């Protein structure tokens, strides 16, 4: 159980891809720069790469894979970076579509889902017991 920043792009795939393309020192700088660039792009409300489709009679927003910026990202940098950007974009759209900024959420990292209040309280109590034993 921990805090996940919904809509924040994971830096690891950027590092992995840049390590393959650039010398080590340059790779770290390039990965951080590229990550920051895409994080800023996600925040822009005028960029909305979603389309509405009907699923079982209900309208649903999905990523528009024909979006030029996303297509260029996938072609230039590959699937790993594309996937983390799309994941962050979906999270941002789900948790804060109007403001387009990162939102903190209690998260169950083991099961990759939002943590329930019961899980959070249980985790805190477990941490307190461990802390008391150490004293």
From TrEMBL:
Q: Which PANTHER family match?
A: FACTOR OF DNA METHYLATION 1-RELATED, RIBONUCLEASE P SUBUNIT P38
The Factor of DNA methylation 1-5/IDN2 domain is annotated at 4-134
Name a biological process GO annotation. gene silencing by siRNA-directed DNA methylation
Q: List the Pfam families hit by this protein, alphabetically.
A: XH
Q: Which InterPro entries match?
A: FDM1-5/IDN2, FDM1-5/IDN2_XH
Species:
Davidia involucrata
At the top level, the lineage of the source is: Eukaryota
User: What is the protein name for this chain?
Assistant: Factor of DNA methylation 1-5/IDN2 domain-containing protein
Taxonomy of origin reads: Eukaryota, Viridiplantae, Streptophyta, Embryophyta, Tracheophyta
